[in-house]
Hints:
Elements: H1 12-22, H2 35-41, H3 46-60, H4 64-98, E1 102-107, E2 110-115, E3 124-127, E4 136-148, H5 150-153, E5 159-161, E6 166-167, E7 172-184, H6 190-193, H7 207-236, H8 241-255, H9 260-277, E8 280-282, H10 285-291, E9 296-299, E10 311-316, E11 321-324, E12 335-337, E13 340-342, H11 348-359, E14 364-368, E15 371-375, H12 378-389, E16 400-404, E17 412-418, E18 423-429, H13 431-435, E19 438-443, E20 446-449, H14 452-467, E21 471-479, E22 490-499, H15 506-515, E23 519-523, H16 528-537, E24 544-547, H17 548-552, H18 556-562, E25 567-570, H19 575-586, E26 591-595, H20 601-606, E27 609-613, H21 619-624, E28 627-629, H22 634-675, H23 683-702, H24 724-748, H25 754-776, H26 783-786, H27 792-810, H28 812-818, H29 825-848
Helix pairs in contact: 2-4, 3-4, 3-8, 4-9, 4-23, 7-8, 7-9, 8-22, 8-23, 9-22, 9-23, 10-22, 11-12, 14-16, 15-22, 22-23, 22-24, 22-25, 23-25, 23-27, 24-25, 24-29, 25-27, 25-29, 27-28
Amino acid sequence: MADTSLQTGLTATDVAAARRTHGWNELPKAKQAGPLRVLLRQFSSFLVLILIIAAAVALALGERIDALTIGLVVLLNAGLGFVQEWKAETALSALREMLSPQALVLRDGREQVIAARDIVPGDILILAPGTKISADATLRRAAELSVDESVLTGESVPIAKEEEMEVFAGTSVTSGRAEAQVTATGAATEFGKIAHLTGSVGTKTTNLQNKLGHLARQLGIAALLVAAGVAGLGILLGRDLNEMVMTGLSLSVAMVPEGLPAVVTITLALGATAMVRQNALARRLQAVETLGAASVICTDKTGTLTENKMTATRIWTLDRQYEVTGTGYDPAGHIAWQGQRVRAADDAVLGAVLKTGLYCSHAHLTRDGDTWHMVGAPTEGALITLGYKGWCDLPEERNLLAELPFSSARKRMSVLYQSETTAEILTKGAPERVLEVCTHIMTQDGIRPLTDTERGSVEDAYTQLAEKGLRVMGFASRSATDHQISEKDMTFLGLVGLIDPPRAEVRDAIAMARSAGIRVVMITGDSPITAKAIAGQLSLSITQQLTGAELDALDEAQLEAVLQGDILFARTKPEQKMRIVSALQAQGQIVAMTGDGVNDAPALKQADIGVSMGIRGTDVARDASDLVLLDDNFATIVRAIGEGRRQFANVQKFVRYLLSSNAGEVIALVINIAVGGPLVFLATQILWMNLVTDGVTAVALGLEKSEPDQMQAPPRDKETPILGVSGIVTILVLGSYTGLASLWIFFHLMDQGVELARTTAFTAMVVFEKVSVFAFRSLHLTCWRIGWFSNPFLLGALVVTLGAQVLAVYWPPLQVLLHTVPIGLNEWMFIGAFALPILVAPEVLKALRPAPLPRDVIGAEAA
Ligand code: ATP
């Protein structure tokens, strides 16, 4: 393949031609569960097995209509299950789509971010630390590049790569920078040959799903045993065989919470979709669940708490200080010294600072009409803009001879530039890291040795700028003697202060986290003074700040002790995050940790919830994370925690709801057998209640909005059971009431015929179950507080299910299937009278109970 120009890359015509020959850069997709598979899955559950046995038994006993009804219920249930699961499946695949990888390429002379699938052979890829390489390529330019090839070779030590060497799709850059020409894409790559798939939303079942699946199975087995026991006993006592077998079947159907697993799945999947609307993309469903229990958020500063839109506002040199006007990356603006405009050409020291900022950089400004865009790191973009404002000459790329790239550990970078007359090393970075390699300083009177007093002046100036919350960069240079970059004996040039304003929403988000009992720990690579100033602007209370070096000096016990307080970590290396996460976890905290760089991946994996950045994050960090912030915003984490809490609460609500409905049925059936009455509910009626009416209501309960005081309570314990003692008591109390009430109705109406009595008891149970749902809408707030009409899905579900029950009683075909007869006003009044306390009593109890926590308006809407 001919070499593509490193100045321009491919043109649109080249790309089109290559696409025709080589196709898209993608691997054959994994087979997604198709509609048929999802449908078939509905028939493979334990419940369906019980039902099929039930239908067979009914058939064997000559109860053809019952067998038919059970068959129809199985179909209906499968239909509902299919709709839910299909919805969950499509929601998840939409999320998967959003994770598709991107790549930075050079095309038509411009660096552009494109979808990785658009890459064609010949493209020039631009590689930086954390980039996941999307195609096989040959390095055309490389500076200190090393690549992690463990996906291909299993070897986890990064491999150093030089020009003309190959890099492979699926591997990732651990350090350095490079430009590489693509040689193979898609299935033709080495990675394609071993065909893996990337960018998936994990479909592993979550703890919650596992726990509930387990609960459902246990109840299923218990149901079979109890049913067999009761039926066997009845037969031994000489009761009618047919009736006892049908009773046993009814009982087992009544005890199994059929809807549970499907309702959980759909709730989590719909919840994940709701989170995306709030800019939080969960890569694993488990993340949503864990988020609800998060007790600490460890966050970086730049870009998460702040806007990451940098503007240089101050320049400090030993004998002059300058102000800079203008905002953003628009070069309109100027540099002023004592109120007078100055340009690079007028002032040698200023010129040297500006030149270093311009040359020691990978950012570019592009212009689109009146608006300016920046490609690259915001810090560097701001320095380019500053260079424009000072009328500095732009660098010529061909004069760049070597580079020592920036890394978060070194916190500085250097380049070697050659002009016609000189060769120069230019360095920029954290001021203290630049100052430590300087022996001289540049002044208006020339270069002179750096004395302790002058070092002190630099440090004072650095502190003063940082105290204003500015990000401060230091600059140095020296002439080069050979083509090697040696960062020593350099001349200090000056400092630039960059403003990076805090994000508007973060202040409230921090306040909300505090009221929700969630601690916020800032861990930043920036200076402690800047970090403290920004924390102050955001009302994040800090009593102690530690630098990475100070952190290294602490032993585990000391670290545990400092982690009790309001602490901030500054000038840290990404590697140190891991230690902080582990120490917090040792205290029993559930930790959410943000990270964007390649070295953040281990900490993201270690954290309970690894949070990566959708905009500025690297591919490696994203792959290691559970949650991607599509807007890089801290406030999104807090919102996602709110969403996690909402979902856990909703799962608790519908589990309790479903089980209390089942409990009512079981209590009625068992007591009825004990007193020797005829069957109070028929097997088909129970199926109707559990599958047709309860399932729909439970899904609607899963869509309940967050409660107004949700973010005013401390995080739940990770081990919080879904049921707990209060849940079990509620289920038993409510179940006893509905069970006994429907039995009472049954016996009371018995003299008007068992059919009428049974239909009324059956309808009463359905109505009770529908009315009781209001008690579960919040486990501690009254419906007055959360709003009777705030969940339209629930109201819709109630209308539909109660409507269905009316049909079950009055519509002849359903009368045949469900063995019902029409009931009169009198019966409805009985039902109404017994239903009323179910609506009223929980409201009264909740209203009388003291509020668990002081209510506060903060966050009521945002959550
Ligand atoms: P955070 O960890 O909150 O994102 P950060 O961006 O300051 O903050 P790092 O990226 O680790 O963290 O940067 C650490 C320091 O290195 C910065 O404060 C800055 O002084 C310096 N620095 C950042 N970017 C560059 C760069 N491109 N070239 C040279 N030095 C840099």
